[in-house]
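To whoever is on call:

I kicked off a structure prediction for a single chain this morning and the downstream step that reads the tokens threw a length-mismatch warning. I double-checked the sequence; it's 400 residues and nothing unusual in it as far as I can see. Pasting both halves so you can look.
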Amino acid sequence: MQQTIYLDNNATTKVDEAVLEEMLPYLSQFYGNPSSMHTFGGQVGKAVRKARSQVAALLNAEDTEIVFTSCGTEGDNAAIRAALTAQPNKRHIITTQVEHPAVLNLCKHFEKQGYTVTYLSVDSQGMIDLTELEASITGNTALVSVMYANNETGVIFPIEKIGQIAKEYGALFHVDAVQAVGKVPLDMKNSTIDMLALSGHKLHAPKGIAALYVRRGTRFRPLLIGGHQERGRRAGTENVPGIIALGKACELAQEHLAHIDKERELRDYLENGILAAIPDCAVNGHPIQRLPNTTNIGFKYIEGEAILLHLNHYGICASSGSACTSGSLEPSHVLRAMGLPYTVLHGSIRFSLSRYTTRQEVEEVLAVMPTIAERLRALSPFKNDQADWLQERQQATVSS
């Protein structure tokens, strides 16, 4: 069986063996309901409280500020809806053009409900301009919702500066930190963030478990209404095995942060190796202000899907963008917002590493990428930047 080289960790991650070991007893031996009054359920409730503390510790937050959810999308939806419900007289939202669909599509939904939404632009390196934010925000702004780090390019936004501007105008500040948690240090006790979403399967816990940080004192009406679980902020019987797993994953992530530079060095080794060996390619995104595990590289004159198919032949997993939009043939909305040329848009590949990635795996990728690029460029119908037919096709797609 062919060995898999997994470089798609921004899409999902391998469940850590220690995480799996921690959660397994709660699928069999300790199956009680944590809300039950008897001892059998009470011991499960105690384990859930421990997991909440582990999540809070990674964020430097209080245990009571952690709400367990099912995924990052639920957390984003719950936070945004709560912010708007708490301020019914304010009808303006600010976000960015490069957000995850969990935020973008919800904001588009609220536009249809009569809200005004400002979508902040980004420059060619994927960075927002704070002057545009300052020019857009008003006393009518209910919410500023900006991702901590972009899932496709890894670009990290100046979150605390954004939060300071939001606070000056009395707007709530929500952050989708799904890609950032476990990769950069976070400190909620000294932050301007009111609500922050994270997801377990991005930091070596299983899919189907996540958490939402809600700052103490923030008015919050639940998305799910029912029982008393999560202090009335998220009804429904708790996903106990997932919660235990998330707690352990956060504990391990906190330990790993001390060694995150090793991940960055390996990312740079991959990135520099590709740039040195293959002509007409460049990194998409800010060269410094980005996640330590992520590189998004544009290969001119090649279709990204073709690159992925060839990589897959060698057992190498990568991505051409967000896993939540991978079924679309459209070029990435993130890269389009950055104004990249059409000859790069269609040939951009994201490699995202994890603490399990090895130097040998990176060297195997570097060994095959030049051949793949050369082979595909030999077949490419466009060989230079005057690819008028590609531009016309893109414009026709946008118009329709």
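Update from on-call: the warning came from a stale cache, not from the record. Cleared it. Sanity check on the structure: The radius of gyration is 22 Å.
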